[in-house]
Amino acid sequence: MTHDPIGKCIYCDSISDLTDEHIFAYGLGGDDVLPKASCKSCAKVTGSIEQHVLRGLWWLARAVLDFPSRHPKDMPTEFKIRGETKDGIRTEIILTEDERFGIASFPDYAPPGTLISRPYSPGILMTGNRMIAFGKSFEEIGKKYNLASITGSVTYKGTTFARMLAKIALGVAVARFGLDNFEEIYIRDCILNKKDDVGMWVGCDNWTAPPELLERETKTRHASIIGVDDGVVKVRIRLFSFSPYSPAYLVVVGRLRPGTSMERKGKAADAFSGMNK
Ligand SMILES: [Zn+2]
Fold first, then answer.
1. For residue 185, what are the domain limits?
2. What's the total number of domains in the chain?
3. Helical pair 160-177 and 40-51, crossing angle rounded to 10 deg
4. Separation of CA 12 and ligand 1 centre (Å)
5. How many A from CA of 194 to the centre of ligand 1?
6. Among 86, 134, 197, 237, which residue has the least CB neighbours within 10 Å?
7. What is the pLDDT of residues 47-82, one digit of tens each?
8. Domain assignment present for 273
9. Cβ pair 134, 102 in contact under 8 A
């Protein structure tokens, strides 16, 4: 869906050199576009955030899921796994085309600091790591190659993943309310890496999607829900929402000007539903 043009950079308010902004990265199959919504210099910053996730953490999973790529020739074609056989022998196996599977990692975070009145601390607190496998099931691969386990490593580059969530949430919120209706946007500085405070605004909580919402989200690649609490805009994001295992993240985006209409207008009308509290 292409939203109405913004005419201003949503990250820094610049009005020159504006480019179109994919709310969810193109490489994640995102087709929600905010026209004229990012200046070139901010696009460079958000682009490098996305690269970490698209080419690092989720590269194999994207290939298995046939997500789009701006550089299709660079996509991985060889799927190698390392593991240990049931006889305790370390081994490396190159999978065939129809055995491909990819694992996507999702960090679990503490709740956004601001929601639990936690005093400022730098960075973001990671409380766990969730792995979701896509493609062929590990059970089948394991059986065929007599594997007891597979091994691998995940590298999270600092707060980059959390900043990507903030970036997505800002796009979602601006698509719904416009940029000028925000009195303050809390997450701009962490997206642009000017302030190391992403943990104050981004995190996880114990919310789980009700079954009817999950059912709807299985039909989309990614899901977002927007909620307003006393003028404060919060966005819930589930990436790879077609998987029931994918975690929900919560981003506290900013505060609306008093009197901002909650009515859904124009193209954003059907995109979001109210947030369950
Ligand atoms: Zn900018």
1. 18-268
2. 1
3. 130
4. 4
5. 13
6. 86
7. 999 999 998 889 888 988 888 888 888 888 888 888
8. no
9. yes
